[in-house]
Design a protein that fits this description.
Chain B: Keywords: 2Fe-2S, Iron, Iron-sulfur, Metal-binding, Oxidoreductase. The complex is a heterodimer of chains A (781) and B (166). Chain A is α+β, with helices and mostly antiparallel strands and 781 residues long. Helices cover 27% and strands 25% of the residues of chain A. Classes of the chains: A alpha+beta (781), B alpha+beta (166).
């Protein structure tokens, strides 16, 4: 009975707000969270559990001479102490393959072998019956090491990683058009050297992992997981020599992801291996200091970029060479951030010729990977700095230069001869110029120029800046959803996606409710569990609403069709004249007539129902959504800043993010994503940085040193959610909304600070710290 | 064992007799010995405020207090805010105003907000920002948290006014 209509013919979501879609309904996630009844990693406990404590490298680069564990082993409550020798059978932690080759030898072992390569690298682990005792014992592990020269600058000449391997595993190159000719024929060439500091997601919940081997069922369970459960399950199984069916991952509540959580880290494998060997549950909860040196860093890049323009300021070509500071090892993302930076750099502009070389380089710092808007926060900063520089060089207005170069609505879809993440870059839809007009008007840009002039005349140091960004979302290739109605009419939606706290359950429930004709509060969403659905691609890359949302739409429509078909037979009415409202099948024309509930239909479709002979029972359907291309959201950041002349402190006063997300399933949640994303973007623009001393010792190891914005640092934020350009690539028209709030923040703040200083191009590095601004202010005098 | 202390903690009006080492933090005891895992640890060095609880009605960071110091004090945690199935006005306002995403910082902000509303329900905007700047949220960008506290203050005023009329 399943699959009555080929999926391709199923209708797209109608325009305008529906019963649930397009409405700012409250979240189904919230009730347990506001009552303190959530289940975060540290809340997971099993009887007889052991606690793991990691002994971490204290040198940035050193040869390990010996690791003495006897004293630790003798401490009260200690059950085992492991070094690299004890886990020599566990292979290096792999990465998700792209077409970049040759990265394998640079992957991280679960415990350092021979060399330690960054401060914070796991060198040994202690297992004890109590977390305090495990920490006591870890302090008794003695690591003898011979310090080696450190490499901390990714722009310096590469060194040796290991015999025969140097610290530049690959260079990601992309090129199209006649680059040399573009520069030869240019009216002007601007050339900039720009850098983005090292910062990262830093979710408020640190990582945690709790493994348990259930011998009765022969299943290894890992709890406290996030983001990529199915890939992680498969890899844990492979690395520990078990069949994937014998390993299951579970997701509870997740205290923020932002790219860094839910990747496969050494600690995940260590607790799993220990649970199998020690035959007791093993719990590990990261502390904050560990988090700041052990969990993925991100962002650090240095660009040398040249742009060729004609006399009107139109781009003829861009040539960029950049250096990506990967830190000590290749982690699960491989070279993806470099690939994304290279592929997304052109942004919203028509660009006839482009050449980029991204040097992927290892240093003696914490390994890095993705953080919200990976590769885009960086390259939006770089590209928009270039656009401002072009305006300054040619004496053009900053807005006008952008207008002349924006890809127009008529040019959509706009295919670039480029790829990123292995898919061709085809900007799917957009009215870039139209959104720019709306954003400038909403922000009051023209009037603001007069206000700025008046404030400057009265001695204030104030300025405004803008940045245009293009995001990417809905990375394929696939995701599936199973929707089932039970005998009480309650709906269960099982998804291969995960939640990192962004509201996945509510959004999928809204889509399901809209398609099926039930209240969204009756939809239970199951996610992040490998034991409930065989496959899944997880929650990252702003993909869940696009991929799992589209699969939900298809599965719920399939269930709807099954229900209507069954109801038509029961009610003796044509199914085309029936609809479902609030879980009741009734005549669509509103006339009185017989009705039947989804609960009754579900009961009638049970395995013991005569009507189901010869059919798979249940009012249930599983559907998949596939996508070969990504959907590209876009938008504009507009910032107004004030500079304290005494301290050089930059105060963001007012801010607008305009973001076209194709279709907002829940505008309140979209706005929440954008404002929250902006707070992180402002962190990277002004405050957050992982700093190191010359010997590679990390200096940002507490929240007193790594400065996350508080409410006091936040400007008044306005959000303009646009739905001008629904994506043609999915039945909902949606584009991801998770990363636009972060993407343009560094670029817009840099432009606003330039404007306040009245020095175009003054800002060449993020974060814009008071010391830099103070120095620039001194230069004015 | 001489290193252990027998203490009684009063949490949300309920007495918990626990035996703890002197070094054991109040946060760990509330979470592990009392089983109240709604209080979360975000930094364990007193900056983020996720572990904020009320001790004799004052917000404190439970990661910076030793359990032995909390003996004889009245402790309140997030689990004590709702009356049965009825959320407190502030909890309800957090839901209505989308003041949480991942929910990890939420218990700390709820306890901080509860103290603010008890001590100064008509708090000015600047003072509210100042008070809330002691806690970190990594998801929301804070605007909706401030909005929720304002909304809860309004709801509580309306409730009081209605009670007076009745």
């Amino acid at each position: 009975m399943d699959g009555l209509i080929p999926v391709e013919e199923r209708p797209a979501l109608a325009a305008g707000p529906g019963d649930f879609v397009g409405r700012s309904v409250t979240r189904i996630e919230d009730a347990p969270l506001v009552r303190g009844e959530g289940l975060f990693a540290a809340d997971v406990n099993f009887t007889r559990q052991l606690h793991m404590r990691v002994v971490r490298a204290e040198f940035a680069h050193a040869r390990i001479l010996s690791v003495s564990t006897e004293a630790a082993r003798a401490m009260p409550g200690v059950v085992a102490v492991w070094t690299a020798e004890d886990v020599a059978d566990i292979p290096l932690i792999p990465f998700r393959a792209t077409k970049v080759r040759g990265l394998e030898p640079y992957c991280q072992p679960v415990l350092a072998r021979d060399r330690m390569r960054y401060v914070g690298e796991p060198v040994a682990v202690v297992f004890a019956d109590d977390a305090y005792r495990a920490e006591d014992a870890a302090e008794m592990v003695v690591v003898e090491a011979e310090e080696l020269a450190v490499l901390l600058d990714a722009t310096a000449a590469p060194g040796e990683f290991a015999p025969g391997l140097h610290t530049e595993p690959t260079i990601v190159r992309k090129e199209y058009g006649e680059v040399e000719a573009a520069f030869r024929s240019a009216h002007a060439v601007v050339e900039l050297e720009l850098s983005v500091g090292r910062h990262s997601g830093v979710p408020l919940e640190t990582r945690g992992a709790i493994a348990r081997y259930d011998a009765a069922r022969d299943v290894l369970e890992l709890h406290g997981t996030a983001k990529k459960q199915h890939w992680n399950r498969d890899e844990i199984a492979r690395l520990l020599g078990r069949p994937p069916q014998g390993v299951h991952l579970f997701e509870g509540h997740v205290g923020g992801g932002f790219g860094v959580r839910g990747e496969l880290y050494p600690e995940d494998l260590l607790v799993c291996a220990a649970a199998l060997r020690l035959r007791r549950p093993v719990k590990w909860i990261e502390d904050r200091r560990e988090h700041l040196v052990a969990t993925n860093h991100s962002r650090e890049q240095h660009h040398r970029i040249r742009a060729a323009v004609d006399a009107d300021g139109r781009l003829l070509g861009i040539d960029d060479v950049f250096f990506h500071d990967q830190g000590a090892y290749v982690r699960t993302h491989g070279a993806r951030v470099v690939d994304l930076a290279a592929g997304m750099l052109p942004g919203p502009y028509r660009l006839p010729a482009f050449r980029v070389a991204g040097h992927f380089r290892l240093t003696n710092k914490t390994p890095s990977a993705t953080y919200r808007a990976p590769g885009r926060f960086e390259t939006t900063f770089v590209r928009e700095r270039v656009m401002d520089a072009i305006a300054a060089r040619l004496g053009l207005d900053r807005i006008e230069v952008r207008r002349r170069n924006l890809v127009t609505a008529a040019e959509m879809p706009h295919a670039r001869p480029l790829d990123t993440l292995g898919v061709d870059v085809v900007l799917d839809s957009g009215d870039y110029g139209g959104l720019l007009d709306k954003a400038l008007s909403r922000f009051g840009w023209d009037a603001l120029q007069g206000e700025l002039a008046a404030r400057r005349a009265s001695g204030e140091c104030v300025g405004a800046g803008l940045a245009f960004f293009v995001e990417k979302s809905g990375l394929g290739p696939s995701d599936g959803v199973r929707v089932a109605v039970d005998a009480t009419g309650a709906v269960e939606l099982v998804s291969g996606a995960a939640s990192v706290g962004q509201g996945v359950e509510t959004v999928l429930a809204q889509i399901c409710a809209e398609a099926l004709g039930v209240d969204y509060a009756r939809v239970r969403v199951v996610r992040g569990r490998t034991d409930r659905i065989e496959f899944g691609n997880g929650a990252h890359a702003s993909r869940v609403t696009v991929m799992s949302g589209s699969a939900t739409w298809k599965a719920a429509l399939a269930v709807r069709e099954m229900a209507l078909d069954c109801a038509a037979r029961l009610l003796q009415l044509p199914s085309s004249g029936l609809t479902i409202r609030d879980g009741v099948v009734m005549r669509e024309d509103g006339l009185a007539g017989p009705t039947v509930t989804l609960a009754e239909i579900a009961r009638g479709m049970g395995p013991n129902s005569r009507a189901m002979h010869g059919h798979t029972p249940g009012l249930t359907a599983e559907r998949w959504f596939w996508s070969d291309h990504m959907a590209y959201p876009y938008g504009i950041h507009l910032a107004l800043v004030r500079i304290d002349r005494g301290t050089g402190r930059v105060v963001a006063e007012r801010y607008l993010v305009a973001n076209d997300v194709g279709r907002a399933i829940n505008p309140m949640l979209v706005e929440g994503q954008i404002v929250g994303g902006l707070a992180q973007g402002l962190g990277g623009a002004l405050y957050e940085e992982f700093r190191y001393d010359p010997s590679g010792q990390p200096l940002s190891t507490t929240f007193a040193d790594y400065l996350i914005p508080t409410i006091a640092e936040m400007p008044v934020v306005d959000v303009l959610i646009a739905e001008d350009a629904p994506s043609p690539l999915n039945p909902l028209g949606v584009k991801g909304a998770g990363e636009g709030g972060t993407n343009g923040a560094g670029a817009a703040i840099a432009a606003a600070v330039d404007d306040a200083l009245r020095r175009p191009g003054a800002i060449t590095a993020l974060p814009v710290v008071p010391a830099t601004v103070h120095r620039l202010l001194g230069g004015l005098a | 064992m001489s290193g252990l202390h027998d203490i009684v903690l009063t949490v949300n009006g309920e007495r918990h007799a626990v035996r703890v080492e002197a070094r054991r933090t109040l946060a760990d005891v509330i979470r592990e010995d009392c089983g109240l895992t709604g209080t979360h640890l975000g930094c364990e060095h007193g900056v983020c405020g996720a572990c904020t609880v009320l001790m004799d009605d004052q917000p404190v960071r439970a990661c910076l207090v030793f359990a032995v110091q909390a003996q004889g004090r009245a402790l309140r945690t997030v689990e004590g805010l709702a009356q049965g199935s009825r959320l407190s006005p502030l909890q309800q306002a957090f839901v209505d105003n989308h003041a949480l995403q991942c929910g990890y910082c939420t218990p700390g902000f709820l306890m901080l907000g509860t103290a603010i509303l008890e001590q100064d329900p008509a708090i000015g905007d600047e003072a509210l920002v100042d008070a809330l700047s002691s806690n970190i949220c990594r998801c929301t960008g804070y605007a909706n948290i401030a909005k929720a506290i304002r909304a809860a203050a309004a709801a509580m005023r309306a409730e009081t006014a209605a009670a007076e009329v009745a």
